[in-house]
Amino acid sequence: MATISITVSHDPIDSGARLDALAGADPDCGGLASFVGQVREEPGLVALELEHYPAVTEKALQTIAETAARKWDLHRAVIHHRVGRMEIGEVIVFVAATAPHRRAALDAVGYMIDLLKTEAPFWKQVHSNKGSHWVEARDTDRDAADYWTDQIASEDA
Amino acid sequence: MQITIRYMASLRDRMGKREDILDLPDTIADSEALTAHLQTLDPAANALAHPAIRLILNDAIVPRPSAVKDGDTLAFCPPFTGG
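YS: structure for the whole thing
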């Protein structure tokens, strides 16, 4: 049974400390993979603000992590997502997985970050020096989630 | 029947409010009938009918259409943009 860790919080995410805490935590795992999403510098951007739908978000992330753990036989699946206002360079999301071998850990992390972008109720708002606007969903994010969903469906068939 | 309707993120801006608590005729059986009813009340609600809009019904993400009943809370959600 994999260990699942999910948090959604206003607190800053120290990705280095998070990764250090996972290194060696599962001695029977040769692979520890992670992804860190951070606020990207863009012309005029002052900050990003993330809002979510409490309780539903955590449940969606839990489902994504459990699905990844089951599919790739993970020993650990971790998703920490920040909400509220964030400035350039600050960490928005930290995703990690441990598995006996690297491929499973890497694929599981790819799956979790791609799925959470389209299946967990978060919304991003850009605050720039010209005002504020909501970020629109991108087709490439939808395509990335569909890639994994199709892959899982074809393997289950 | 009474239904609480929430408008999330950009839909909150579009509708100019966070939520409505509406007394609705019992003939409104699902999310699509409810959306059509909201469109008769406010043209801004046309945005709710877009197929990309997701639904959260009583703390669960549900497909469109989904049945609604007295006491439900239904949230209209723009496509998610986390991560």
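YS: worth flagging: Chain A touches chain B at residues 37, 50-53, 55-56, 59-60, 81, 92-93, 113, 116-125, 134-137, 141 (CB under 8 Å).
IM: good catch. Also The helical segments of chain A are 15-22, 56-72, 102-119, 139-156.
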